[in-house]
Amino acid sequence: MGVEVGLAGSYWAKDTSVEVLDCTLGDLLRRAAAEVPERIALVEGIEDHAVRRRWSYRALLEAAEQVAHALLSRFASGERIAVWAPNCPEWILLQHGAGLAGIVLVPVNPAFLADELTHVLKTSEVAGVFYASLYRNNDLSAVLSSVRARLPHLRETVCLSDWEDFVDSASASTPLPAIAPGDMVQIQYTSGTTGFPKGACLHQRGIVNASRFAALRAGFGDGGVWINAMPLFHVGGCGVSAVGALAQRGTFVLMPGFDAAKMLEMIESEGGTATLVVPTMLVAMLDHPDRPRRDLSSLKLILSGASAVPATLVRRTTTTFGCKFSILFGQTELNGVITQTGGDDSPEDQAETVGRPLPQMELKIADPISGEVLPLDTSGEICARGYQTMKGYFNAADATGATLREDGWLHTGDLGAMDERGYVRVTGRLKDMIIRGGENIYPREIEEVLFDHPGIAHVCVIGLPDERWGEVVAAVIRLSANDGTAPDAAPPCAAFVDGLHAWCRSRLAAYKTPAVWFFIDEWPLTASGKVRRHVLREQILGGGHRGLVATKTPVQPVG
Questions:
Q1: What does the domain layout of the chain look like in residue ranges?
Q2: What is the pLDDT of residue 486?
């Protein structure tokens, strides 16, 4: 990654030095099973060591083929089945089985309630649903029963508690079809930080190579041990983590969900070498009282992304864990990662950029209106073109055309800038941009300044309506715990707020400095760990947000 490029404009021609594997998910699994049949491929990362289930690559392929035969006894290739369950080995077996059978998997967030579930199942026209009976005391069976009449394409439902009966229904006489690398493999619904989520149609070639390239760029070695607590219904879980580990013939340790203490124990007990965590998860691991007493010497690599990764967090992580760090940037519509930092990048590039484009990906920073390439170090829309763009949004031609243009460029809606070496800085989202008195303000720039304050653990900057300016800048903050810099008493005193204002004012223009301050303990998050900015804004405007607001007038309670 140290090669000097010297670009003339914000355009990166695809790097063809690493080939795209023209293969399917099934091909990848068969290759690993042939090359390292007895190596452990999958571990059920539950708390009790004694009953953790383990699959070698040989056993995983055999189980996946049996699942594929069972699926084909009920569904035809090309049909869609949903999996509505938290992380579990059966989820992975379904992913591999569906891939071998040519059946399209539709991952569904197990936290969804009736209307959210109906939207995904109805718009994707699923023929079958595989579901857990319970999730966080929510009776999924009852919810599914309540909406079934609204789902005209749904024929079959299978509870995962009946998994063995389902697998036993397989008939080996049903031949597995020939699957092409360009065939659809999943419909992944966008996280829905605003509006209704859309179903991005991902393909075999895309999810295999985007995940493989991410593992290679990060430095995840052959046979490494990947500890995963990311939700499998997100492309970071079922793609980057699961398929990235598979591409390097590694061991994938699947935790039911994230818990900082259990994650630290799992790294120690399973000899974890790598993990992908969003910043909120990483902070929880660093701050957990169990961390100093755990032997985490096996940990060589931490990957992070999904939301802003502040420079202070990068430095703290590498110092505390003694590991390498890799920042990922991408989106569901691109089968996962498109730019990434690597282990050989300088500390400054690690802390301040999201790296260079991955191999075989063409990228430009474009004027959001004209699509023209912008000069270097100029903020514009990040657009990508290459093998890993989605096939489109399922049954949504208008939405597809607005995002994936006829010339092949996918418009991400993310704002960024590129330097002469091809390194990209993310500056925000088009829809998050704040317009104050005609000036465009990008929240991420302000967030990075506040992240450097020792009293702040996490921050989200949003725009609030204002009669005079149109919008004003508001900062929503979670304070650091027990570092001695945060105010001693809650709520934060006016003097502390004045200090934050001065901190920003010494680093930012006056119009970018927040005029309104909120302090909270917990964020409204998507399942992938992103702050739901529109929810935060609605809570504040509706007076239902727990916290405090301070302007240049005395601090006043909200709600």
A1: 23-418, 433-558
A2: 45
Nearest Cα to 55, choosing from 38, 71, 69?
Answer: 38
Q: How far apart are CA 360 and CA 243, in angstroms?
A: 18
Low-confidence stretches of the chain (pLDDT < 50) are 1-2, 192-194, 483-490, 548, 550-559
Q: What is the SS3 assignment for 82-138? A: EEECCCCHHHHHHHHHHHHHCCEEEEECCCCCHHHHHHHHHHCCCCEEEECCEECCE
In angstroms, the CA 453 to CA 517 distance is 15
- SS3 assignment, position 25: helix
pTM, to two decimals: 0.82
For the domain made up of 23-418, the CATH class stated in words is alpha beta
- How many whole angstroms from its chain centre is CA 485? 32
- Do the domains at 23-418 and 433-558 have one common CATH topology? no
How many other CB atoms are found less than 10 A from the CB of residue 82? 27
Long-range contacts of 318-323 (CB under 8 A, 24+ apart): 318/350, 320/286, 320/291, 321/296, 322/297, 323/299
Residue 417 CA, distance from chain mean position: 21
pLDDT at res. 195: 54
Tokens coding 45:
């990362």
Residues whose CB is less than 8 angstroms from the CB of residue 406 and which lie 6 or more positions away in sequence, other chains included: none
Residue 419, token pair as written in the block: 């330097």
Question: For residue 454, is the peptide bond before it cis, meaning its omega torsion is within 30 degrees of 0?
Answer: no
C-alpha distances (whole Å) from 251 to each of 54, 88, 208, 274 are: 10, 15, 16, 10
CATH of domain 433-558: 3.30.300.30
